[in-house]
Specification:
This protein has one domain: Alpha-Beta Plaits, CATH 3.30.70. It is of the alpha+beta class. Strands 2-3-1-4 form a 4-stranded antiparallel β-sheet. The chain is built from 3 helices and 4 strands. The chain is globular and about 40 Å long.
Length: about 110
């Protein structure tokens, strides 16, 4: 199965790029990740996400939002804030977040 990428979003839109280092499969992480995916999908203006992790523990998730209001709604969600606190205390060795405005976007897909 070929993974599907988020494509066809008309700019401008915003990205939240979350890069992290954590051990493989820490306790409770998978369940929390599923719950965060459920919550973010309910945010008006959420457009999708892509995520990848290396066997060595480096992960990158890029989430796409129509506008800064949608991104702020996600950032300020109380369950999301609690998960971030827990992650800092228990899961992550380090992480960084980068917010960007996309002004041009294009892609390719083999048929």
């Amino acid at each position: 199965m070929t993974p599907k990428l988020v494509a066809g979003i008309e700019p401008p839109y915003y990205t939240a790029v979350f890069t992290s280092v954590r051990p493989d499969a820490p306790e409770g992480y998978a369940e929390t990740s599923v719950r965060m995916q459920e919550i973010v999908r309910e945010v008006p203006g959420f457009l999708g996400y892509e995520s990848a992790r290396t066997p060595g523990g480096i992960g990158i998730t890029v989430a796409y939002f129509r506008d800064l209001e949608a991104l702020d709604k996600w950032r300020l969600d109380t369950e999301h804030q609690a998960a971030k606190r827990y992650g800092r205390e228990h899961w992550y060795d380090s992480y960084s977040v980068h917010i960007g405005k996309v002004e041009r976007s294009y892609g390719f897909e083999r048929e």
